[in-house]
Specification:
It is a single chain. With 214 residues, the chain is an alpha/beta fold. Helix content is 42%, strand content 11%. The chain has helices spanning 21-27, 29-33, 41-48, 53-59, 66-84, 94-101, 114-124, 147-156, 170-179, 209-213; strands at 8-11, 106-109, 132-134, 163-167, 182-186, 199-201. The chain has a 6-stranded parallel beta sheet, covered by helices on one side.
């Protein structure tokens, strides 16, 4: 059991609980190509990663037709699951880390829609480890707005200021920070936006993580 100064733990899903962000990146290529749109890696990580798909379509692709937006989202989702089926698992060290947290309140806070998020949690066989799940279906304003993380804290029955967030994307870290949470960055973002997290880990096997939490 971890001894920690935090009362609640809030985890992003893709890129944090599961290393799937590269699959999300690939899932946009063919649907966007059919619209004559090309997005490079830098634009994807700046404008797409960590945000709800419908928000991306409106804010960054300039789409206004609700039917077209929904079709794009559906096409991207279909492409993602074709890529992810049978090829994803929990991030290294995650299951042991969740075990060490014991009964401490834990939530998932993701930009995925409800159906996709719950499907992934079931695929990973970790759905029962979280007492709350916040998805893009639950909020008006997605990441980087603080609403998702504020709602996650509320569903845990805690102030956001006593929670710590685990996030891999710049938009997610900004969202958690704006909500008032401490932030642990996960993955390669330390190379491009190190200032957005209080502590960085490659995965949950990081030997300094428990000490930092304490």
């Amino acid at each position: 059991m971890i001894t920690t100064r935090f009362e609640g733990f809030v985890f992003d899903l893709d890129g944090t609980l599961v290393q799937s962000e590269h699959l999300h990146r690939l899932s946009w290529d063919a649907p966007l190509a059919r619209l004559g749109i090309v997005v490079d890696d830098a634009q994807y990580h700046r404008e797409f990663a960590g945000k709800p798909g419908t928000q991306i379509a409106r804010d960054h692709l300039g789409l206004t037709d609700p039917v077209l937006i929904q079709q794009l989202y559906d096409d991207v989702t279909t492409a993602y699951w074709e890529l992810a089926a049978g090829s994803v698992g929990p991030t290294a060290g995650l299951l042991h880390f969740l075990d060490d947290l014991g009964g401490l309140p834990k939530a998932v806070c993701t930009s995925a829609q409800y159906d996709s998020a719950t499907r992934m949690l079931e695929v990973l066989q970790i759905a029962d480890r979280f007492s709350a799940v916040v998805t893009a279906s639950d909020v008006v304003l997605g990441k980087p707005h603080p609403e998702p993380f504020l709602l996650a804290a509320d569903r845990l029955g805690l102030p956001a200021t006593v929670c710590v967030a685990f996030e891999d994307s710049s938009n997610g870290l900004r969202s958690a920070r704006a909500a008032g949470m401490a932030c642990i960055g996960v993955g390669a973002g330390v190379e491009t936006f190190p200032e957005l997290a209080d502590y960085w880990i490659a995965d949950f096997t990081d030997t300094g993580l428990e000490e930092w939490l304490g």
